[in-house]
Amino acid sequence: MRAAYAIAANDADPLSALEVGERPEPTPAGPDWVTVEVRAGSLNHHDLWSLRGVGLPADKLPMILGCDAAGIAPDGSEVVVYPVIFGPESGPPWSILSEHFPGTLSERVTVPATNLVRKPEALSFTDAACLPTAWLTAYRMLTAKGRLTAGGSVLVQGAGGGVATAAVVLAGALGARVYATSRDAAKRERIAALGATAFEPGARLPERVDVVIETVGEATFEHSMKCANVGGRIVVSGATAGHLPKVNLRRVFANQLEILGTSMGTPEELAALMTLLVEKDVRPVVDSVFGFSEVRKAFEKLNDGDVFGKVVIDYTR
Ligand SMILES: NC(=O)c1ccc[n+]([C@@H]2O[C@H](COP(=O)([O-])OP(=O)(O)OC[C@H]3O[C@@H](n4cnc5c(N)ncnc54)[C@H](OP(=O)(O)O)[C@@H]3O)[C@@H](O)[C@H]2O)c1
Fold first, then answer.
1. Cα separations (Å) of 164 from 139, 158, 181, 275, 302?
2. Which one of 75, 91, 153, 260 is least enclosed by Cβ atoms within 10 Å?
3. What residue owns the CA closest to ligand 1's atom 12?
4. 159 confidence band (pLDDT: 50, 70, 90)
C-alpha cells in the first residue's frame, strides 16, 4: 500500500528523512484491532518532529507517519480515528499513532476498535481528518483545561498554526471574545476574518484574558503571562519555538495564575467536538488539500511555515 514514512532522523533537514512509497499491509497488534480504509488524513507539526527524531527513536524506523485520519471501518461505517493508543506495549503512559504503531499516512491503518469514533454525515472526510490531533487538542485546551465560559476572553498565540486556528474558531463558537497574535500580517488579516482581533506578537491587548492558548513557547510565553487576568489559565500543549521560557514566578502567585499542561483529548471529547461543529455549523480551517501523490509537497508547505490552518491529504486523489 502507498505510505509516507520516516526512514531516518534529520533535525536540520527533516524532509530528507521522508520517504513516499510502498509499505506492507498493516497487521493488527491485538485481537480487538481493526483496519480502516483511509479516505483523508492531515499533517501536524508532530510529523515534522518525528522526521527530526523527536519522540521517534531510531529502533522504530522505518515508521509510517501521520496522526489524523477519517475513513471506512470494516462494517462500512464512516469513522474518525482517535489517535491515542493505550496499553503496556505502546510506551509510557501512552503513544500517538506514528510513535510506536504505524500512523495514518497510508491507505490503511490498524487501531483498536475502541479508537473508532462515528463521523457525523454532515462532516466531509477531509474536514473530519483535521480533527483528531490539532482540533481535539484545541477543544480540550479551551473546555476541560481552560474552563472557558460564554462571554469569557481568550488569547491565542501563533495563530496561523493548526492548533491555533482551531482554538480561534472554537473559542468563537463557544461564545468568547477572541484575541490572537501572529508574526505574519497576511495571517493576521485571515485571523480577523475568523472573528478574532489580531495583533502582532507582544502587543498590548484591550483587556486581560481568562484563557491563553500556548503552543509557541519561548517566543510568546512572557507575553502570555502578562496578558492573563487574575486567576487566568495559561494552557500549554506545545512549544514550537522552544520549551524553556523565562517564567516570572512573582506574576504567577500574585495574579494566582494557573499554568496547565495538556495533550490531545479523549474519544468522548472528539465526539463532543464533532457535535459542536455540526450544531454551530462551523468547519475546520483548511489551508490546502493535496492528493496522496503530492504528499511530499504537503510536507514542504508545512515545513516552510507557510500555512494557515490544516494541510489535508485526500487519499482518493
Ligand atoms: N500536546 C499535544 O497533544 C499537541 C497536539 C497538537 C500539537 N501540539 C504541538 O503544538 C505545536 C503547534 O502544532 P501545530 O500542528 O498547530 O503546528 P503548526 O501548524 O506548524 O503551527 C505552528 C505555529 O506556531 C507559530 N510559531 C512558530 N514559530 C514561532 C516563533 N518563533 N514565534 C512565534 N510563533 C511561532 C506560528 O504561528 P504564526 O506564523 O501565526 O506566528 C505557526 O503557525 C507543535 O509544537 C505541536 O507539536 C501538541
1. 10, 7, 10, 20, 14
2. 75
3. 215
4. confident
Residue 76 CB neighbour total at 10 angstroms: 7
- Considering the domain architecture, whether residues 200 and 214 belong to the same structural domain is answered as yes
In a domain, 274, yes or no: no
The total of structural domains in the chain comes to 2
User: Distance between CA atoms of 252 and 83, rounded to whole angstroms?
Assistant: 34
- Quick one: what percent of the chain has pLDDT higher than 90? 95
Quick: pLDDT tens for 273-306: 999 999 999 999 999 999 999 999 999 999 998 8
Torsion on CA atoms 224, 225, 226, 229, rounded to nearest 10:
100
125 and 20 in a common domain? yes
Residue 38 near residue 46, CB atoms below 8 Å: no
Q: Which of 163, 194, 222, 270 to mutate to test the pocket of ligand 1 (most atoms within 8 A of CB)?
A: 163
Mean pLDDT (whole number) for 19-47: 96
> Measuring from each residue's beta carbon to the nearest atom of ligand 1, which residues come in under 6 Å?
44-46, 49, 133-134, 137, 158-164, 182-184, 187, 201, 215-216, 219-220, 237-241, 263-264, 302, 305, 307
- Say if CB 231 and CB 209 are below 8 A apart: no
Asked whether residue 275 is assigned to any structural domain, the reply reads no
Q: Which of 73, 82, 75, 61 is nearest to 5 (CA)?
A: 61
Select from 238, 287, 246 the least CA-distant residue to 55. Answer: 238
The dihedrals phi and psi of 87, each to the nearest 5 degrees, come to 120, 155
Residue nearest to atom 13 of ligand 1 (CA): 45
**Closest C-alpha to 283, from 292, 274, 291:** 274
Q: Are residues 242 and 152 in the same domain?
A: yes
Q: What is the pTM of this model?
A: 0.96
